[in-house]
Here is the input.
Amino acid sequence: AVEDGDHYIINGSKIWTSTAKQADMIFCLVRTEPNAKKHEGITYITFPMSTPGIEVRPLVDMTGTANFNEVFFTDVRVPKSGVIFAPNKGWQVANATLTHERGMLGDPNATKARLLELITLMKTETVNGQRLIDNPMLRDRLMKLQAEVYAMQANGLRITTSRLQGQPAGLAGLIVKLQGCDLNHEIARLAIDALGELGILYEDGEHLRSGGTWQWRYMYDLGLIIGGGTAQIQKNIIAERGLDMPREPKLAKA
Ligand SMILES: Cc1cc2nc3c(=O)[nH]c(=O)nc-3n(C[C@H](O)[C@H](O)[C@H](O)COP(=O)(O)OP(=O)(O)OC[C@H]3O[C@@H](n4cnc5c(N)ncnc54)[C@H](O)[C@@H]3O)c2cc1C
Here is the structure.
């Protein structure tokens, strides 16, 4: 972005922008000081999606729906009044946003609601006359997932307690996104496995169960393991910031 009086002119593109097609507003991290260090010279700015020069191209993912988009910015003129915090200090704001995003993606209540849905499914669906929940192999997997969901809830309470005491959430906060997204995916996986041959159906039809929700979640949740910071990056953060392990080696400069 380049300055133009009390405006910035933005040029560039951003891929994987969730719900850009529906959004009224967008926030962007734009480079405003080209010669600054990697994490400096970035400005966090918000503006309406109706601003001239913005083009949104939907991307269809493997669920068959267009949940995210590629967004192109051509001479998009936005007022500086949209800057959050301060010019060139966007990295700090982005980290706060990411903390909220990761917390939201790993919400233990949402995971528990999904687990309860799975339990209902396993109590109502049958294979060869046997309720899914009465199959010992499936029930064993369900019990393991239930234990993890309860552990996640307890971890959520630990975070709340820390916050109420004015303490940082520390390691308890760092594991939320990784744990929650993996668990959501595993719950969807069990639903599909438990349904047997019906589990692989996705298109509309008389044998489709739960409107294909489990299959949709199984595919889309793979994306959520990536979005908001990949599982591998979460593990690095947990190791380095949470467990005080040595930083991963940097590549040698050519
Ligand atoms: C469903 C979904 C929604 C999204 N929504 C948005 C959105 O609304 N707005 C937005 O701006 N972006 C969005 N994204 C983009 C998302 O933030 C990035 O895809 C994600 O942060 C990963 O970055 P990347 O794609 O550049 O992968 P890269 O960083 O190129 O990583 C590629 C692979 O290498 C691994 N890797 C990279 N570095 C390391 C390392 N140091 N150690 C170990 N492994 C490493 C990664 O784990 C990954 O497997 C979304 C993505 C998805 C999938």
Remarks:
- The chain has seven helices and eight strands.
